[in-house]
């Protein structure tokens, strides 16, 4: 299967962001992509750098304007698209939601981000209610997609549960970068850790992992920090953690590559982690901590 990741530099002009995304989707489809993954909260700037009640105006219902617009595109091009939207579920109830569009333009399924960070420049708990749909893959014409979102990518339990539910691959729309005051060596460690932990999910579960990050500098509207430089570096890893394709750290990129989903069967026969899991001894994983 040929897949595509669209790594984009966003501005405050939502209409322009979406127009450029549409152009990239068309370009990827023209190159034969059957599955196209967009970055986290792709329509706008990453608004979570501050706690601003006015930012809730960016939210939209699902189904809504974005699913209609990108759905028409999916239907026209015959591709499956993974969106990442600020969902308005009800007054005072909002989610960070991934929406999977089938190639006929219909909504194949949703995933609501489960792990919500609250750190300087990433004040997501102000905006998003934790997801309530669980770790359930979305079945599509191109496979069973284990879609998770950004902060979820640090949790091996999330990847494992998606794999156990039959995901053919793991997909992470992402918005992660450096705060400007971090020293160079710390920045290097952070990005290396981000790549390493996700390659570990690929190895531990014998699955392909797709991580699509945004790129470019976005200022902090409050001036409290120096803003975020999103580190791009979107990538696709194979089921032994091998890097199949990698985008640059500082440029927009439509990353198109082929993956072979049959490798999961081959790799799991060699490395039967699911066979040897001691599920009888794992009960304490349901606890916050072990005393």
Helices, strands, pairings?
Blueprint lengths: L1 E6 L6 H17 L4 E4 L26 H13 L2 E11 L2 E9 L5 E6 L5 E2 L2 E2 L14 E3 L2 E5 L8 H9 L4 E6 L2 E3 L4 H22 L2 E6 L1 E4 L9 E4 L3 E3 L5 E4 L6 E6 L4 H8 L2 H4 L15
Parallel strand pairs: 1-2, 2-3, 9-10, 10-12
Antiparallel strand pairs: 1-17, 3-4, 4-5, 6-7, 8-9, 11-14, 12-15, 13-14, 15-16
Helix pairs in contact: 3-4
- The CATH topology annotation reads as Nitrilase/N-carbamoyl-D-aminoacid amidohydrolase
Q: Count structural domains.
A: 1
Mean pLDDT: 97
Rg of Cα set: 18 Å
Distance between the termini: 47 Å
Largest sheet: 6 strands, mixed
Q: Architecture in CATH?
A: 4-Layer Sandwich
Please provide a written account of the structure:
It contains six helices and 17 strands. The chain has helices spanning 14-30, 65-77, 156-164, 184-205, 263-270, 273-276; strands at 2-7, 35-38, 80-90, 93-101, 107-112, 118-119, 122-123, 138-140, 143-147, 169-174, 177-179, 208-213, 215-218, 228-231, 235-237, 243-246, 253-258. The protein is of the alpha+beta class and 291 residues long. It starts with a strand and ends in a 15-residue tail after the last helix. The chain has a six-stranded mixed sheet. The protein has a six-stranded mixed sheet with strand order 8-9-10-12-15-16, covered by helices on one side. The mean pLDDT is 97. It has a single domain (2-286), classed as Carbon-nitrogen hydrolase (Nitrilase/N-carbamoyl-D-aminoacid amidohydrolase), CATH 3.60.110.10. Helix 2 links the parallel strand 2 and strand 3 (80-90). It is globular, with a radius of gyration of 18 Å.
């Amino acid at each position: 299967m040929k897949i595509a990741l669209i790594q984009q530099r966003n501005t405050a002009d939502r209409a322009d962001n979406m127009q450029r995304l549409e152009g990239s989707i068309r370009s990827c489809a023209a190159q034969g992509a059957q599955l196209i993954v967009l970055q986290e909260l792709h329509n706008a700037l990453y608004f979570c750098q501050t706690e601003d009640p006015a930012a809730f105006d960016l939210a939209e219902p699902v189904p809504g304007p974005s699913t209609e617009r990108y759905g028409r595109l999916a239907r026209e091009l015959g591709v499956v698209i993974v969106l990442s939207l600020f969902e308005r579920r009800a007054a005072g109830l909002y989610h960070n939601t991934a929406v999977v569009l089938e190639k006929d333009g219909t909504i194949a399924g949703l995933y609501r981000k489960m792990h919500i960070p609250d750190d300087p420049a990433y004040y997501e708990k102000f905006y998003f209610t934790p997801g309530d749909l669980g770790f359930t893959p979305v079945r599509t014409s191109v496979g069973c997609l284990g879609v998770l979102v950004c902060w979820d990518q640090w949790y091996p339990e999330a990847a494992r549960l998606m794999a156990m539910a039959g995901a053919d691959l793991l997909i992470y729309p992402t918005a992660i970068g450096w705060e400007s005051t971090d020293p160079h060596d710390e920045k290097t460690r952070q990005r290396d850790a981000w790549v390493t932990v996700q390659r570990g999910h690929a190895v531990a579960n014998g699955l392909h992992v797709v991580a699509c990050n945004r790129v470019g500098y976005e200022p902090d509207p409050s001036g409290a920090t120096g803003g975020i430089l999103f580190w791009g570096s979107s990538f696709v890893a194979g089921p032994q953690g091998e890097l199949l394709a990698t985008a640059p750290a500082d440029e927009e990129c439509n990353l198109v590559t082929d993956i072979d989903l049959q490798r999961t069967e081959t790799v799991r026969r060699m490395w039967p982690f699911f066979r040897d899991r001691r599920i009888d001894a794992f009960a304490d994983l349901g606890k916050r901590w072990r005393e």
